[in-house]
Specification:
The protein has about 375 residues and is of the alpha+beta class. About 50% of the residues lie in helices and about 15% in strands. The protein folds into three domains: about 200 residues, no CATH class; about 120 residues, no CATH class; about 30 residues. A hairpin with a 4-residue loop joins strand 9 and strand 10. Helix 1 packs across helix 2.
């Protein structure tokens, strides 16, 4: 049994999606609701990562100075140096601690991503590798049924089942042989039988040869005939129910790419890509990654990152439904960052940073300030305690 991304997608994401679609019959709203549910569920993990990143950014100069002092003081005693470094990390926090929440939430985010790239929002492809042999080798071939891995297919709104592509006689053919691929559920029902229970659903599988086109002849009735010996890759596609359904300004949730083959521009896709880049930049600014006191090289990387990430979606396009999820998730992340970056620092960190800032200003002759840059002012009640 699969307990990985597929398990999370089929047993966690899709039930949530079906639940919200049952309340409001709109796949667009279901995506919004699913995204928010997952983001709220991951809020504690993500908050821990943001808090740790903020603490590390603020304390980095002081921590670096203390590290250099320890290395210099105990350069002849590696054991003592390691011990003092451990105390330092305990006092300031381990920089790697912020990575753990990110790692823990990655399987859930991958499962959500896989869900939005599957049925009903996208067409589902089945690739079948065929081997065609000369007619005289017929007696050497032993028929053995061939089946692809089942994939979750939406048969009607809110109704889905795992469906596999099946070749009863196997994927080893001889020249002149005719056969047909059958779609079946894991219970053994054909796709035609299952769809007969949902007369309002119109799903017509499509076929094309992606490799060795000259070796195989496709007929209109879905059968195919082996023509020449060699290897052939046959691709079957089951359309997604919601690929052509729109939501708000989005023309089709399953549309892929900002440009079509005729050169037409899909402004709904372009708008979401631009929004993603802008929200990423705002999130960086709120988290202090674009601060003026950062190193010039780091500043340049931070500024170009939103451009690279958003521009990537023009060359490696994603379905509109996935882009909508990413835009909503980024907006949620920006709000979360804004809230968390205004939290007061832990008392011990706040005192150390204030002391360090005071020492530096005394040396430089600058007037003292009451609050740190990018940090909320501490209340009188907090200060008196």
């Amino acid at each position: 049994m699969d307990f990985g991304i597929g398990f999370l997608s089929n047993n966690v994401m899709l039930p949530i999606l079906d639940f919200f679609y049952g309340i409001v019959p709109s796949y667009g709203l279901a995506i919004v609701a699913l995204t928010l549910v997952i983001r709220f569920a991951l809020f504690p993990l993500n908050a821990g990562s943001i808090r740790n990143m903020r603490r590390m950014r603020i304390t980095q100069p002081l921590m670096k100075k203390r590290q250099e002092e320890i290395q210099k003081l105990y350069k002849e005693d590696p054991t003592k140096q390691q011990e003092e470094m451990g105390k330092l990390f305990k006092e300031f926090g381990n920089p790697l601690a912020g990575c753990l929440p990110v790692v823990l939430q990655m399987p859930i985010l991958f499962a959500l991503f896989a869900t939005l790239r599957g049925s009903p929002f996208s067409n589902i492809n089945y690739d079948i590798n065929l081997q065609i042999f000369p007619r005289e080798q017929l007696e050497l071939i032993q028929p053995q049924a061939f089946s692809t891995k089942p994939q979750n297919i939406y048969l009607a709104d809110g109704v889905h089942a795992p469906v596999a592509a099946l070749l009863p006689a196997g994927n080893r053919l001889v020249v002149g042989e005719k056969t047909q691929v059958e779609f079946q559920t894991v219970e053994g029902k054909t796709l035609e039988q299952v769809l007969g229970e949902y007369p309002d659903t119109e799903i017509i599988p499509k076929w094309k040869v992606t490799k060795g086109e000259e070796r195989l002849l496709l007929h209109e009735d879905g059968t195919f005939e082996a023509l020449l010996p060699g290897e052939v890759t046959l691709q079957g596609t089951i359309p997604g129910l919601a690929t052509n359904r729109g939501f708000l300004f989005i023309d089709a949730l399953g549309r892929v790419g900002a440009f079509d083959d005729d050169g037409n521009i899909h402004w709904d896709i372009v708008g979401m890509i631009l929004f993603f880049g802008i929200s990423l930049y705002i999130n960086q600014t709120l988290s202090g990654q674009n601060a003026t006191n950062a190193q010039p090289q780091q500043q340049a990387i931070n500024k170009i990152t939103p451009v690279l990430f958003s521009g990537m979606f023009f060359f490696f396009p994603l379905p509109a439904g996935v882009l909508m999820y990413m835009a909503i998730a980024n907006m949620f992340q920006t709000i979360q960052t804004f809230i968390l970056m205004r939290e007061p620092l832990p008392e011990n960190i706040q005192k150390m940073v204030e002391q360090q800032e005071t020492e530096e200003k005394v040396k430089s002759g600058e007037p003292l300030r009451e609050a740190l840059p990018f940090e909320p002012k501490r209340s009188k009640k907090k200060a008196s305690s």
